[in-house]
């Protein structure tokens, strides 16, 4: 009977919540650390360099829109987690949840890195010397988080 009831468990709601939280948190880390604290780049700093007040204002607005998206992703993650918490068929696993967050955080890095840094070229992780190395490192770090997160989800402890 125990093995049969385990088959009825659905980890997907917990995984979805973790992925959305990871996407939002990944964006917040990028925006807070790289945009604000280190000031390595802003959303449009490669297209509109911070050389005059108009460009500074435009980059500030786009950084704000970026943070609004991060906030929205995080709120969706919290809402999904809340819904999952009310379900009896969702197995609670710290390993699955943390793995999902890492997966989402890495997914943010890979998608944002490919689109903004490589395809659109609107900014780079750290412009200037070794710019491509910083961009590739950002992508590798994101891919590593995806792999680690996926492995944590797949090897979760059933009885947790």
TrEMBL record:
This is DUF2243 domain-containing protein. Keywords: Membrane, Transmembrane, Transmembrane helix. The chain crosses the membrane at residues 12-38, 65-85, 97-120, 132-153. The keyword Transmembrane helix applies. It comes from Tolypothrix tenuis PCC 7101. The keyword Membrane applies.
């Amino acid at each position: 009977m125990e093995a049969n009831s385990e088959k009825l468990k659905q980890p997907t709601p917990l995984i979805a919540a973790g992925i959305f939280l990871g996407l939002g948190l990944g964006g917040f880390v990028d925006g807070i650390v790289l945009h604000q604290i280190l000031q390595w780049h802003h959303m449009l700093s490669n297209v509109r360099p911070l050389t005059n007040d108009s460009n500074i204002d435009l980059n500030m607005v786009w950084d704000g829109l970026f943070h609004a998206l991060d906030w929205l992703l995080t709120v969706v993650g919290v809402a999904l987690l809340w819904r999952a918490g009310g379900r009896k068929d969702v197995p609670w696993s710290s390993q699955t949840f943390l793995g999902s967050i890492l997966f989402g955080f890495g997914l943010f890095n890979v998608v944002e890195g490919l689109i903004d840094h490589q395809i659109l070229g609107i900014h780079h992780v750290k412009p200037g010397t070794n710019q491509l190395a910083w961009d590739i490192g950002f992508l590798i770090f994101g891919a590593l988080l995806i792999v680690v997160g996926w492995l944590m989800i797949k090897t979760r402890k059933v009885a947790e």
